[in-house]
Amino acid sequence: MLSRLSIRNYALIDNLDISFSDKLNIITGETGAGKSIILGALSLILGQRTESKYFYNQQKKCIIEGFFQVKNYALNDFFSENDLDYESETVLRREVSADGKSRAFINDTPVNLAILKQLGERLIDIHSQHATIEINDENFQLLVVDSIANHQQLLQQYQKAYKNHRQSKSNLNSLIEESDKAKLELDYLQFQFDELEKAALTESEEAELEKELNALNHAEEIKRNLSATVYILNEHEQSVLQQLKESGTQLQQAAKFHPDVESLSDRLQSVLIELKDISFDLENIEQQTQFNEERAVEINGRLNILYNLQKKHRVTSSVELIRIQNELSEKLSSISFADEEIARLKLESEKLFAELSVLADNLSASRNEIIPFIENKIIETLWQVGMPNSTLKIINKTLEEGQFNQNGRNTIQFLFSANKGQEPAPMNKVASGGELSRVMLSIKSLISKQTALPTIIFDEIDTGISGEVALKVGKVMEELSESMQVIAITHLPQIASKGDAHYRVYKNEQAEKTLTDIKLLNNEERIGDIAEMLSGKNPGQSALQNAKELLES
Prior knowledge:
Number of helices: 17
Largest sheet: 6 strands, antiparallel
Pfam family, one: SMC_N
Structural class: alpha/beta
CATH architecture of the domain at 1-123 and 453-521: 3-Layer(aba) Sandwich
Shape: elongated
Strand content: 15-25%
Protein name: DNA repair protein RecN
GO biological process, one term: SOS response
Radius of gyration: 46 Å
Distance between the termini: 27 Å
GO molecular function: ATP binding
Helix content: 55-70%
Keywords: ATP-binding, Coiled coil, DNA damage, DNA repair, Nucleotide-binding
CATH class of the domain at 1-123 and 453-521: Alpha Beta
CATH superfamily of the domain at 1-123 and 453-521: P-loop containing nucleotide triphosphate hydrolases
């Protein structure tokens, strides 16, 4: 439950600190006094986003803190799962700086807004007068049934199975589509692969063939240059080898008299030997070099095959052609194995469908089982709030065979009638604003009791009711506060008189600014406040007496 709320620098609030009763808390005040501002501040520590334009003082930080007693609400696992320190009095804090940057804390541990919101949803349910619009939404109606059925674990199992089945079905359909498309292209893919495989491609062949063809095309020039080189080295009257040989003889003679010349003579002998080998190899190459027209035609034919394949596949090398050949091989292989994979996925999808059907049936059974209880309990509460002739019928429709949605194979519809002899119909067609408020109060009351939510806040849901009906609505809130904390913002004296604690929100006019403030009223002040709600400003003795009687009752 919310034991204390501290608000600093938010909207018209400079510094405000409120401590709440653990039962029924009543908040009253004139329209525009700032009741909604307090709720807005509270919503910040429940995970709602904010803007710095709502600051009372743009030079200071906005800080909202809520102190919650949580020891009786089995929240230890939540704290453990999110690596948070568990405290029986847990503090939710939100800080917003002037530049709009926001930080959130749970027991002084920084958290993101998602975690703050998750915890907030397990601590407080804020129900405003505008929330009655939800009651006509089939998703909300289904949520009501599921919440009271308390089969969250079953619903989570179903939703997981639903997600897995959808994914499996999507994978199967994609594979079938790809397989059908590939089979249409199979002949062409096989032709392309066979053509490349027949070409017997190697990565280096193209470069080697081009080199060999270049040599064949320039055979005469090569022979002429090699012959001239051999002639200069070895066959000329003053050939290089002959002159080097004579130079070596001269050095050998000089080496007898100078030790340094000996090493130079040896080096020259090495050069002479190397040149002889070069001359010999050049002569061999020259003799072997011949223009082979047949081989040139053969190479040109092979290169034409390679070039045409490259042009056809829009690449520039045999390496890329080999890559394409491998890709075609993989595609052909995948086509041949696709039928096996499709059969496997079909079995998997059928198995998941069977699991999904069982879980959906269990959900349907659970909903059908709880619906009579919900109908009876809501009708009982409606009788308490002055609607004794009301009828509520919950229709659980089953989708067509094989049809599922995120929440099972059911759609829920609430049908309502407030009068005898009137057939139940959708609420938006037969219920007035006041009737919708009381139906929603009955629903919220039942949900809160079943789910053991610590705190519920009713924000002016008493629209459209008055007199004896208002007294009965107040009585229901009073009974509800026996099992949980209730905070009710109201303009009705009949409801205000039921509170264990009564707060008045008011504007404090100062020299330069208007502040919103709140005050816990004592008994005499409550009588005055309720009397004003009955008759306006400056109430007379009859209004004061009436207010006193309301409080005493």
